[in-house]
What we know:
single chain, alpha/beta, Carbamate kinase, eight-stranded mixed beta sheet, binds magnesium ion
Amino acid sequence: MKPIRVFKFGGASVKSAGAIRNLANIVKRFSAENLVIVVSAMAKTTNALEEVLMHWMNADLTAMNTKLKEIKQFHLNEALDLVEGDSNHLLIAELQTLFNQLETQFGQAPTKGYDFHYDQVVSFGELFSTRIVSHYLNFIGIANTLVDARRCLRSDTSYREGVIDESTSRLLCQREFDFSSANIFLTQGFIAGTEVGTTTTLGREGSDYTAAILANLLDAQDVTIWKDVAGVLSADPKIFSNAVKLNIVSYQEAIELAYCGAQIIHPKTIKPIQNKKIPLYVKSFMEPDAQGTIIAHSDTPVKLPPVLVLKRNQVLITLSPRDFSFVIEDCLSKIFALLYKHRIKVNMVHNSAINFTVCVDNDKLRLGDALEEMKHEFAVRYNSNLELLTIRHYTPEIIGDFIGNRVVYLQQRTRSTARFVMDAS
Ligand code: ASP
Ligand code: MG
């Protein structure tokens, strides 16, 4: 059998009919190969569906219907454009069916928790986009099979953060992606299915992770993430005008960068490909012939320039035991259990005799509950609207340039990495 290659196309690469035509041109070049194509929701659809969900949960049905109508109109317009205005095309009927399924959920008030409903609603972004891309590819003669990711990626019921059961998923994937019957398969990023048939999502921007896990389960030759940038850059060009493209990045570097907030790739993406030493290419869908970045195994350290990663919307929380007891092991384990329970992502920690300070993402829902619980045992202080700047491979000059005389709330340095929590600039 020919090796399998996994392609992932994110929201920007399917943002419109025009973008989908461009995607098709890329796929056409590889149409003789064995491909698994993972597709995200179109443009900002995930955000839009999050809004719909919020309105529904707040019982603001007028706002909900307005947003829903917008999403529907957008998808139908782009779909009609792709099938050259043929409103009788099967694609249009299938989109209508999907919208009916989505809307049926709103016929009654929410009965379960936010995370559950989130996944049943927000997952539709990928269901719409894959239906459109698959039909369009068939329409122009690129035969492909659409696989429902919920039938091949089995997850537990950690809604909004589904954990994939690899051994079950491997069997399901081998069945669904049957390369003896076809050579191009298309599936949804970001979503999976539980044993009882409910939908889960894998965390925002999770389609990269879907691509990586499928590559692992199917023993793919490589993964290519097609993006609207040239590859992995040393910084966001919006914050650092001297940003350069990194040509080669080791798995270890990539996982560190993703963890500290580099937007380029979802943090969970690296493990599945590292475990099987599958290389990952990050390439521009505007310049498919350009070299991009390769993330791969490297025996020798790859020399890199300073790499800057800025994580916004951070909160710095300081906890102090009310009874003036030391913040030592038993107390620390209590604090971490609490953070874990509320699924708070810890970005940086620091402790002293009677203070424990932690820098976390500002996820309002989760944080609110966690802070309430912390207040039972600790005096809690916090600063919000902060930024966490990480500089890998730092030099004194670059720290000077970026920190200058900004107020730094917390900083840490190792030999390779410097991190600063500061007021938002
Ligand atoms: N559509 C999802 C999101 O925007 C997943 C993804 O794009 O990777 O978060
Ligand atoms: Mg997206």
